[in-house]
Amino acid sequence: MPPPRKVDLLPAEFKQFLQEELKKRGFGGYEELAEDLNWRLEEAGQQLRIGKSALHAYGQEYAEFVKFQDEASAWAADWMNDNGLEEEAQRHNVLFQMITTLAFKVMQSQMMKTGEEINPQELHFLGRLMKDVMSSSGMREKLVADERARIAKEAREAAQTEAEDRFEAVITEAGLGDEVIARMRNGFLGVRS
Predict the structure, then answer these.
(1) How far is CA 128 from CA 15, 64, 94, 171, in A?
(2) Mean pLDDT value across residues 152-169
(3) Which of 127, 148, 22, 39 is nearest to 84 (CA)?
(4) Pairwise CA distance, residues 30 & 103, whole Å
(5) Any residues with CB less than 8 A from the CB of 166 and at least 6 apart, and which?
(6) HSE-CB for 12 with a 13 A CA cutoff
(7) Computed from CA positions of residues 92, 118, 122, 21, in that sequence, does the dihedral angle turn out positive or negative?
(8) Using an 8 Å Cβ cutoff, are 181 and 160 in contact?
(9) Could you give the CA distance from residue 7 to residue 49 in angstroms, rounded to a whole number?
(10) Three-state secondary-structure class, residue 3
(11) I need a surface site. Which of 20, 40, 96, 185 has the fewest CB within 10 A?
């Protein structure tokens, strides 16, 4: 069993710094990045030091990950723009299925590893992502239901207003008395005068 990569041993804040710097530097300048990272590690009292070749190998992997992430985001944005609010909850369900498939693949690869090779942080991030997508899907379904309810309420109010206007036109034309008009208004429209 191979030892873990040094990059994988970085504390979370240094790994985040590394990922941000890789993006800023266009996934290049590994020698300077190694110097910057090692200086930060030293300042923080960490014994870990990482060479430019290890950063380059990690940088290539991370660049590929960022590329796939950007492509997936662009695809999802295009797909969502092509469809209306009505289908948004359904799209979230499809995205959740895609993430579930990815989660299954990651978990399959993790199952091939022994205890010390498994990175609990990867599993945590994957679980968090799935939880967020499920929560988002529920919110989207509620949003669609609320929008439908709002549209139905507006349609009912418009129909009520139209009925009242027609009723007023008919009773004005008929020349009925106030008492008869009040009874008719209550009987037909459910409106008390």
Answers:
(1) 18, 22, 18, 64
(2) 80
(3) 148
(4) 31
(5) none
(6) 6
(7) negative
(8) no
(9) 9
(10) coil
(11) 20
pLDDT tens figures, 11-36:
889 989 999 999 999 989 999 999 99
C-alpha distance from residue 9 to each of 61, 110, 124, 148 (Å):
16, 17, 16, 50
Closest by CA position to 90, among listed 141, 125, 56, 51: 141
The shares of helix, strand and coil residues in the chain, as percent rounded to the nearest 5, are 80, 0, 20
- Residue 14 structure tokens: 């240094």
Helix (H, G, I), strand (E, B) or coil at 173: helix
Query: Tokens 């710094």, residue?
Result: 17
- State the pLDDT at residue 139: 67
- Mean residue pLDDT across the chain: 78
Residue with tokens 């139209």: 162
